[in-house]
Write a structure and sequence with these properties.
binds fe (iii) ion, 2 domains, binds benzoic acid, five-stranded mixed sheet, Protocatechuate 3,4-Dioxygenase, subunit A, 7 helices
């Protein structure tokens, strides 16, 4: 049984509750927080949460409804489903955090959301391999690119982690037992010149999962659940800032109404139709096929950064 007399640390005195000073009173209770940044974040969180309650005139039943919504969000999470990330995504918070923390400054490839489907490790594959293990739909496609820094110096040996949905709009983790584990995922190592290449299928748009509380929120607000067609790319290497981004297909619907606000103009590319039997044979692709080139500019970390 818990010994309630064990912790005799006195709480900081914050005074009796008053609605007018509510945020101030609660913030005073954080005075003993050893971690200054934690104290700053908690204080701001309380200030904004209390202002939200006051601004909206939130009722007891509405707050209870909000708690039930968040409870269901947590209950929907498991090893292959992350409803809280989805919630952060559809509210635009993921994009805001990602963008503010990774300014492209007109020099670097822009970042976008990681999303909830990067929860399994991608299998290492050789340059030129296909990430499509099903060959059951979708247009064959060659993706090429080169990782350089802002001075154009190649990042030799950079890790290029890619993942995408299948021709029906599902990730492998949404179809366990139906498609090979880790289908449409791959971890490539750029060559000495920073170049990478792999085969896949042209991504198509797809709906984010709607069978949970986030789907209810979209329905209640009259929003569609679709993401514009994209391929996820994460580039990392010692000494560079990891870049999490997407490559969007220019002919996709939903580019200007992406369910998670993830589209940035600079990430939209044409997947060119190629009719070239020799090139198709060289890359092990049927002819004709699509080709997209995605040069990636990453940021070197400051020494010690
Ligand atoms: C995705 O692109 O995989 C994704 C991102 C945000 C929410 C759902 C899916
Ligand atoms: Fe995705």
């Amino acid at each position: 049984m818990t010994d309630h007399t064990a912790d005799v640390t006195p709480s900081p005195t914050s005074g009796l509750f008053e609605a007018e000073r509510s945020a101030e009173i609660v913030a005073a209770s954080f005075v003993g927080t050893a971690d200054d940044r934690l104290k700053e974040i908690l204080t701001a969180l309380v200030r904004h949460a209390h202002a939200f309650v006051k601004d909206t005139g939130l009722t007891v039943e509405e707050w209870a409804q909000g708690i039930r919504f968040l409870t269901r969000t947590g209950q929907k999470c498991d090893a292959t489903r992350q409803e809280f990330i989805l919630l952060s995504d559809v509210l635009g918070v993921s994009m805001l955090v990602e963008t503010l923390n990774n300014p492209a400054d007109g020099q670097f490839t822009e970042s976008t959301v990681e999303g909830p489907f990067h929860m399994v490790d991608s299998p290492p594959r050789a340059l030129g391999d296909s990430i499509d293990e099903v060959h059951g739909g979708g247009e064959p496609c060659l993706v090429t690119g080169r990782i350089t820094d802002a001075d154009g110096i190649p990042v030799a040996g950079a890790a290029v982690d890619v993942w995408q949905a299948d021709a029906d709009g599902y990730y492998d983790v949404q179809r366990p037992g139906e498609v090979p584990d880790r289908n449409l995922r791959g971890l490539f190592t750029a060559d000495a010149d920073g170049r990478f290449r792999f085969r896949t299928i042209v991504p198509r748009y797809y709906p984010i999962p709607t069978d949970g509380p986030v789907g209810d929120l979209l329905k209640a607000t009259g929003r569609h659940p679709n993401r514009a067609a994209h391929l996820h790319i994460e580039v990392s290497a010692p000494g560079i800032r990891t870049l999490t981004t997407h490559l969007f297909v220019d002919e996709s619907p939903y580019l200007d109404s992406d369910a998670v606000f993830g589209v940035k103009e600079s990430l939209i590319r044409t997947f060119t139709q190629v009719d070239d039997p020799a090139m198709a044979a060289e890359h092990g692709l049927p002819n004709p096929f699509r080709h997209v080139d995605f040069p990636v500019t990453v940021q070197r970390r400051a020494p010690g950064g």
